[in-house]
Specification:
Layout lengths: L11 H29 L2 H22 L2 H7 L7 H26 L4 H29 L3 H26 L2 H24 L11 H35 L2 H27 L1 H9 L3 H37 L8 H26 L6 H55 L6
């Protein structure tokens, strides 16, 4: 498609609005899925779904190689979109095979649980293609298209799960419906939208794919470690405290997701601005943009914490059950961790746009170590309260790591001559 026929970019505040809108709708629907599972299904259904997400999330994060950010940052258009797409398809196939190995050879789950895990993995690989397209749309600063796609994904997932459980009382049917509807969304909406900005065709050029994989492998490993870090407390709660308490912990975590994904969407929206500033040697502009972005998170986090501290006893019985109020303090602790994650998302976008890929691996390892260490120390004796403190510890470790990497990146660039 000729460049002159591409839709023009939106202004930054418009992209921020659309990004927040799409992610909030999607997050609300995903939370609705959890509520639906609890009300229409059973504790087993909630456990199966949560387990499937916990197993597949690190695998998908690793094989995605964080290509969305790489595509969004490729403002110089150094690689054709077809190369990125081919890489994503190849690595997604690896994720499916790895999931199959886990459920067939390593884990010992019942057959229905295995099917839920495999179908969720398939759904996530479909979502991975849409995610790559989102990176292309970010590069051209058209998050309105991303928002529309995400606003479709969440309600479709809710419809599929609710419909499957209501009609058949079978979670496998629900997740098959979810994967099918996401595939339809990708074919009908995402791919035609991407075609307005780039040629959407598969190009299996082995050398180009291998070079891209080698370059982005640290990003994928880092994302997988971050994903694993987020699920580590869940593993410890399930092992030491039991599935019932894991249900409480997961419910509180999902309740805070809309705020986290809203901040993530804003951080995604400004990646092209970061990338352009760094490419043009405008470090002062990049620093100013980051400071403004971090200031955005301050009132949002403050309002969230105030609301949670004030109204948790009233809110929890409305959205869940009265028994959840016994652990209202856990929600407050998790809100603190969520606030730290929101600030970290802007640092992550900045250092990724600057091309500081390899430095993210040590941060992820330290974050995972903090999560495992504090979970092992606190969960056996303090249950889900200990898991919430572990979430704060790992979030703080990640924030300090990315802040340090950002300072090092600025220092390195300050000593490098700007492009003429």
């Amino acid at each position: 498609m000729p460049p002159e026929t591409k839709p023009p970019p939106l202004q930054l505040h418009h992209n921020m609005f659309w990004g927040v809108f799409g992610t909030l709708v999607n997050a609300a629907a995903q939370w609705g899925v959890l509520v639906t599972l609890a009300k229409l299904g059973s504790s087993d259904a909630v456990g199966q779904y949560t387990l499937a997400l916990a197993i597949t999330a690190p695998l998908i994060a690793f094989t995605n190689l964080n290509l969305r950010h790489v595509v969004a940052s490729d403002v110089a258009d150094t690689l054709e979109f077809g190369t990125y797409l081919s890489t994503r398809l190849a690595t997604s196939a690896v994720a499916i095979l790895a999931t199959l190995v886990i459920v067939k050879l390593i884990a010992a789950y019942p057959s229905p649980t295995n099917w839920v895990i495999l179908v969720i993995a398939a759904a996530k690989t479909i979502e991975a293609v849409s995610d790559l397209i989102y990176g292309l749309l970010q590069r051209y600063e058209r998050l309105d298209y991303v928002a529309r796609s995400m606003a479709l994904a969440g309600p479709l997932a809710l419809l599929a799960i609710a419909g499957g459980l209501w009609l058949t009382d079978n979670l496998v049917v629900g997740v098959i419906g979810l994967a099918s509807l996401w595939l339809c969304r990708m074919i009908v909406f995402d791919i035609p939208t991407a075609a307005r900005f780039a040629a959407v065709r598969v190009q299996f050029r082995g050398q180009a794919i291998l070079r891209l994989v080698r370059r982005t492998l640290p990003l994928g490993a880092g994302k997988a470690l971050v994903s694993l870090e987020a699920t580590v407390p869940h593993y410890f709660v399930a092992y030491y405290v039991g599935l019932e308490h894991l249900g409480y912990f997961a419910a509180f975590t999902y309740l805070l997701q809309p705020g986290i994904v809203a901040m993530n969407s804003i951080s995604h929206a400004i990646i092209p601005r970061f990338a352009a500033a760094y490419q043009n040697g405008e470090q002062a502009a990049a620093r100013t943009l980051l400071m403004r972005a971090l200031l955005i998170s301050v009132p949002a986090v403050t309002i969230t914490l105030t609301f949670v501290c004030t109204f948790s006893d009233t809110l929890l019985p409305l959205v869940y059950t009265s028994s959840h109020t016994l652990y209202a303090d856990v929600l407050v602790l998790l809100a603190v961790a969520a606030g730290i994650h929101c600030a970290t998302s802007f640092l992550t976008s900045s250092v990724t746009a600057a091309g500081a890929f390899a430095g993210q691996m040590p941060i992820s390892l330290l974050t995972l170590a903090a999560s495992i260490g504090t979970s092992l120390l606190l969960v056996p004796s303090h249950g889900i309260r200990g898991a919430a403190v572990a979430a704060i510890a790992s979030a703080a470790t990640q924030f300090l790591g990315f802040a340090t990497l950002q300072l090092l990146c600025w220092r390195t660039r300050a000593s490098t001559p700007s492009p003429s």
